[in-house]
Amino acid sequence: MQSLWFFDNVNLFKVLCPHKVKIYKNEHSFCSYKKKDYIYIQADAANKVYLIENGKVKIGYYSEDGNEVVKAILTKGELFGEKAILGDEKRDEFAQSIDNETSICPISVDIMHDLMRENQNFSFKVYKFIGFKFKKLERRLQLLLFKDTKTRLIEFLDELCVDFGYDCDKTGDHVIRHPYTQKDIASLIGTSRPTINILLNELKEENYLDFNRKEIRILKKSA
Hints:
By secondary structure, this protein is α+β, with helices and mostly antiparallel strands. It has two domains: about 130 residues, Jelly Rolls; about 70 residues, Winged helix-like DNA-binding domain superfamily/Winged helix DNA-binding domain (Arc Repressor Mutant, subunit A), CATH 1.10.10. The chain has seven helices and twelve strands. The strands form three sheets. Strands 1-8-3-6 form a four-stranded antiparallel sheet. Strands 2-7-4-5 form a four-stranded antiparallel sheet. A four-stranded antiparallel sheet has the order 9-10-12-11. Strand 9 and strand 10 form a beta hairpin. Helix 3 crosses helix 4 and helix 6 packs across helix 7.
């Protein structure tokens, strides 16, 4: 199964960045952010979309009682703020850097529309990406509403296996080399970091997986 965040195994940054288009190259620049810097906040004008050159960005919103709700944590090559392309004038979410060296490629909506009009294949990739992203967020909402924490974690690991995993020929294990911390995973499935650690160790004791800071290994089931 293909990753939801890549098309034909091509990094979106390489496909969409206007810096790669000669007529936009001279007037295009990148923006740098430190950890906890906001790229935009709720109610800001939605006049740009953004591509991540390096680093990680958290997408979320604040509920009426002030609690933070994390919708996604995005990494190198991913696109965000895309609802501006569809006509949204104000942001209904925030985007915040969670790395100290996050580099962002901002793209004005007007330039995106120009690129999409000039290249039908480019336009198809953008709309396909938006559709996949909405489906993924809808699936995550269903997990939060209807599944217990352990099930949410297992199904999230299945997603990671699709996006970042590969099969280990020697053992038959599924190896996931992903960019998320335990805190990131906890935010995405609506629980705490200590709970994630407990559940990972529980799954390890059940011989479902093994893990360290760099990778998660889904163990091959014995016959």
